[in-house]
Amino acid sequence: TRDATLQTRPILYLWRGKAFYLWSGLAQELARKGVMDSDSGEQSEGEPVTAAGPDVFNSKSLALQAQKKILSKIASKTVANMLIDDTSSEIFDELYKVTKEHTHNKKEAHKIMKDLIKVAIKIGILYRNNQFSQEELVIVEKFRKKLNQTAMTIVSFYEVEYTFDRNVLSKLLHECKDLVHELVQRHLTPRTHGRINHVFNHFADVEFLSTLYSLDGNCRPNLKRICEGINKLLDEKVL
């Protein structure tokens, strides 16, 4: 039946360059039950970030964990499958490594990536279920253009030596942050806005960017892989 088809038809939605597969039935159920405006039942700060322990990081596992937290808030037994695409997963894994290298704090690196994934999932569900007004859709387009500009700048600063300007890149990332805040202002809680700040303030930090782009630093191989992934997403029109 048509209803059965809706429950099992996979949908691909894109947000901030991350691709997630989400079953239609789950998306509709989340929107209907108002899950997206609640942060209740989320993982406490004291819980381990992954089942494998604090020394192991895998962005796909983290996305699955976030999915389970969202699913725990609804009574429906609708089956769902929400995954990060392989390219974005590789980028996330490299971002975790460079964050850990810079902060010397595995727990904080996990927390930053967990917040990034949770925010992306929540906004993606809102977008896919047409929860944004016409005015907010204008912000979506502004954000996409700003994100594309930021992605190309990240790659350019890596590929062309001695062009890196940490202040320029930091400014672009803060502009992305402001657009995300504006977009979800009426949809998500202050706690989620705090997560947005946590993520963007870290990646836009000029000292972090200097560590990432250091020509003789430990993060150079990671930056290479990050830029390779971004280039692939740009070629595929994901970014």
Overview of this structure, please?
With 239 residues, the protein is mostly helical. The chain has one domain (2-235): Tumor necrosis factor alpha-induced protein 8-like (de novo design (two linked rop proteins)), CATH 1.20.1440. The chain is 64% helix and 5% strand. The protein has 10 helices and 2 strands. The protein has helices at 2-8, 24-33, 59-71, 86-103, 106-128, 134-159, 166-184, 190-203, 206-213, 220-235, and strands spanning 10-15, 18-23. The chain has a two-stranded antiparallel ribbon with strand order 1-2. Strand 1 and strand 2 (18-23) form a beta hairpin. Helix 4 (86-103) packs antiparallel against helix 10 (220-235) and helix 5 (106-128) crosses helix 8 (190-203). The longest helix has 26 residues, at 134-159. The chain is globular and about 45 Å long. Residues 1-35, 40-53 and 73-83 have low confidence and may be disordered.
The CATH topology turns out to be de novo design (two linked rop proteins)
CATH superfamily: Tumor necrosis factor alpha-induced protein 8-like
Low-confidence runs: 1-35, 40-53, 73-83
Shape: globular
User: Could you tell me the radius of gyration in angstroms?
Assistant: 18 Å
Assembly context of the chains = single chain
The secondary-structure element order is: HEEHHHHHHHHH
Number of domains: 1
Termini separation comes to 36 Å
Largest sheet: 2 strands, antiparallel
Number of strands: 2
The CATH class: Mainly Alpha
Average pLDDT number: 78
With helices defined by DSSP (H or I, 4 residues minimum), what is the helix count?
10
CATH architecture: Up-down Bundle
What would you call the structural class?
A: mainly alpha
| Fraction in beta strands | 5-15%
> Helix content range of the residues, please?
55-70%
**Major sheet: arrangement of strands:** 1-2
